[in-house]
Amino acid sequence: MGVEADKLRSLVDGFNGKSVVVLGDLMLDHFVYTEPRKLSREAPVVVADYSSESYRPGGAANLAVILKRMGARVSLVGSVGMDEDADKLLGELKSSGVDISGVVTTGRKTCVKRRIYVGKRQYLRIDIEDRTPLEGPIADRVLAMFSQSLEGADLVLMSDHDKGTLTSSLIYQALELARTAGKCVVSRPKVEHVFDYTHTDSLVTTVREASEAVGVKILNDSSIRNLGFNMLTRIECGSVYLYDQNTSYLFEQSSVTYVPPLAKSPYHEVIGVRDVVTAAYGLAYVTSKNPLYASLISRAAESLYVEATNGARAQISEAHLRESISRFFEDGYSYRTVKVR
């Protein structure tokens, strides 16, 4: 079936002013850039000269910043430590216009992903994090902040990176609060907690992580369908969107839609692409209440992001997304929906 680009662009226009609550694992991305000089005599490694470094929000914090750039009003709920990394992260979020009043300070170490580049290649990643499940008074404070943030919200996005914030207990309680308040909920789970996100409006994850969570090996189209409908039934959600650098799949109660790629690029190598997919899908879903439109707009955002240069990725906005839709969907792009009994 074909796509009406005008319809998709009008939905992106509707992103402006949408109120979104993001609940999840907050991280700081630290990038260290160097230039290779010689091989070391001490070990078989490169000796490199320091060039520069930069900091960006990561995890659910990055999702919040992307949503803000796409036109939404964003309240972020999660936790950070009492350290310099937390100050850097909160400073970046504040300057991006994200509401951080729901961020709780704890005695835990702020999660940091430190990426070391030699020339243009990432050489090493060092993770500094405490993955102990959040519980007790700290979890209660996070949940209280989440409850307060729900007033006036159009959408709740739950962004799980398996760093301890979204425990089974907290997920259950947060979903109960959101449902009682009548909020639209889109979740992006990690493998361990996929089946905790029951009765959400829609769930977004990769084909690979879904396969790992369900225990279904992807061999052919039949196994893909088995995977998607298995998740749909067990999680009891409205729809499941499984994305991949090749074909992505939207599962609804009686159909599966095959959404071909718009750009050829190894998205799994592009830092932050999953947050872009989730942000675009969530905003498009709450604007249209149509998971098909959400998956198409998400695919456009994904392709725009992976094709951009590193510097341009940090500036992608709803205006860029509208341009991407015009470029990708005006010339006969089509998807395929198959009805299933």
TrEMBL record:
Any Pfam family the entry gives: PfkB
One GO CC term on file: cytosol
GO terms, molecular function: heptose 7-phosphate kinase activity; heptose-1-phosphate adenylyltransferase activity
Coiled-coil residue spans: none
Residues annotated as domain Carbohydrate kinase PfkB: 19-289
PANTHER family assigned to the protein according to its UniProt record, in alphabetical order: BIFUNCTIONAL PROTEIN HLDE (PTHR46969:SF1)
Entry protein name: Carbohydrate kinase PfkB domain-containing protein
Organism: Candidatus Marsarchaeota G2 archaeon OSP_D
Native organism taxonomy: Archaea, Candidatus Marsarchaeota, Candidatus Marsarchaeota group 2
